[in-house]
Amino acid sequence: MVTRITVIGMGYVGIPCAALLADVDGFQVTGLQRRSKRSGWKIEHLNAGKSPFEGDEPGLDELVAKVVAKGSFKVTDDIDVLKDSDVILIDVQTPTDENHVPQYSSLKEVSKQIGERMKKGTLVIVESTVAPGTTQNIVQKIIEERSGMKAGEDFDLAFAYERVMPGKLLQNIVHLPRIVGGITPQSAKRAVDLYSKIVKAEVHQTNVLTAEVSKTIENAYRDVNIAFANEMALVCESLGVNVYEIIDLVNELPSRIMHIPGAGV
Q1: Geometric angle at alpha carbon 173, from 52 and 221, rounded to 5°
Q2: 3-class SS at 251?
Q3: Are 231 and 237 in contact (CB under 8 A)?
Q4: Domain architecture of the chain: domains with CATH
Q5: Contact at 8 Å (CB) between 179 and 214?
Q6: In b/e form, how buried is each residue of 88-99, taking b as 16+ CB within 10 angstroms?
Q7: List of residues 6+ apart from 242 with CB closer than 8 A
Q8: What is the pLDDT of residue 264?
């Protein structure tokens, strides 16, 4: 029996996830991508068996070529593909504005499209980074309003955040533990069963809000530690000492894991 999976958003998260799922026997995967000026070119590029990140992501070029040739992966801009999907993964961008407020316009739009087209029994998974409560208060609410269905009864809904870094997309998805939260135990279990097909590390099952909070704290922890390292780099520079040597010395204590300075915070 074929499981039809649609991955919405062909970016750093959607493409490697879609390719890995398409490499699983019995999975037929479709990437759904808007034909926008910025990203529309990815449709033909991926359908030709080429990764948009050519040469920058170990193993991804070969995997995309393999699953396209196999016939288990294709990309389209036709949203009606959602009608026949057994599983739908949401991987759209959720950027912040100049005031650091999350912008969910794309998330809301795809939630409407899903609600207007999905069939009963579909599993919907949010992989995009969102604030705690978003899966239920925005995605679930919109899908229920548009479909007339009830989450947890007529369809399943889960949040499973990504932990990918550019240059290690496949490696991170396959080998890092995954956190999956469902609005019901059944939703969570269905999502865990799906990710267990491509993740070799442990897939942790929890509720949706716990998973969302875990992602938020995980990102905040990283930001705070990089910011601290950057401040210490300035202190070391003012004192004329080597910050990297300092970090090595601090990290000799097993309970200390000081980050290296970096951009982004």
Answers
A1: 105
A2: coil
A3: no
A4: 3-208 (3.40.50.720)
A5: yes
A6: bbbbbbbeeeee
A7: 236
A8: 63
**Residue 44 and residue 40: Cα distance in Å, rounded?**
8
Task: Give the pair of three-digit tokens for residue 171.
Answer: 């490696």
178's CB contacts (< 8 A; 6+ apart) are 160, 163, 195, 199, 201, 202, 203, 204
Report the candidate in 119, 100, 116, 97 with the shortest Cα–Cα distance to residue 108: 116
Strands 178-182 and 156-159 turn out to be antiparallel
**pLDDT tens digits along 178-233:** 999 999 999 999 999 999 999 999 999 999 999 999 999 999 999 999 999 999 99
**What is the residue-wise DSSP string for 183-247?**
SSHHHHHHHHHHHTTT--S-EEEEEHHHHHHHHHHHHHHHHHHHHHHHHHHHHHHHHT--HHHHH
Contact 217/210 with Cβ under 8 angstroms?
no
Pairwise CA distance, residues 74 & 21, whole Å = 12
102 near 93, Cβ under 8 Å?
no
Phi-psi region of 51 (alpha: psi -120 to 50; beta: other; left: phi over 0): beta
